């Protein structure tokens, strides 16, 4: 699931910006090379003006990555999961997600530059939102059920410690049995 999120959102920024997240170049974990190959095989980015990609949960790791960036970046923050079952024993899983498009600012940026940056980031975030909803409606995103998206919250992202300004879209991704719990349970009966 986490790697599906990584791959899905990697299709938006510039390819170089996504590849730069692979700091080590290689790893003893086979999935590292597979994920890198997936990124290399992707078609042209959907929003190439987004120059960098940040994907993570740890503030320290995210901050270290953002500190090295210039320009506009896409930051994906993935949160907790919840799971519900109904009286028919169907399982519905939900994950909280946030997609932020932000721009690094210089210490000398004035209010007009901040407004321009904010407007630019909001425009890109709305483009990402439209793609995401289209993909969900088209069934291209197995971890996101379009009918379950009842609201998207778009809030300002102002992070002085990251020297960034932009916008964050918060939403929940709902899908049936994301973790294949029913199949795993059935395998125990064999």
Automatic annotation (TrEMBL):
Organism superkingdom: Bacteria
Protein name: Uncharacterized protein
Organism placement in taxonomy: Bacteria, Pseudomonadati, Bacteroidota, Bacteroidia, Bacteroidales
């Amino acid at each position: 699931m986490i790697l599906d999120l990584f791959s899905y959102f990697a299709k938006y920024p510039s390819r170089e910006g996504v590849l730069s997240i692979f700091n080590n170049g290689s790893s003893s974990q086979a999935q590292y090379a597979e994920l890198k190959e997936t990124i290399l095989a992707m078609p042209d980015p959907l929003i190439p003006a987004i120059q960098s990609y940040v994907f993570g949960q740890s503030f320290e790791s995210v901050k270290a990555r953002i500190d090295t960036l210039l320009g506009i970046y896409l930051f994906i923050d993935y949160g907790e999961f919840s799971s519900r079952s109904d009286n028919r024993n169907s399982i519905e899983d939900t994950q909280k997600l946030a997609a932020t498009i932000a721009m690094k600012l210089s210490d000398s940026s004035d209010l007009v530059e901040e407004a321009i940056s904010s407007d630019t980031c909001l425009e890109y975030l709305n483009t990402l939102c439209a793609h995401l909803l289209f993909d969900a409606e088209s069934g291209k995103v197995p971890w996101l059920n379009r009918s379950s998206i009842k609201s998207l919250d778009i809030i300002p992202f102002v992070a002085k410690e990251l020297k960034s300004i932009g916008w964050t879209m918060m939403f929940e991704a709902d899908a049936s049995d994301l973790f294949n719990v029913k199949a795993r349970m059935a395998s125990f009966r064999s």
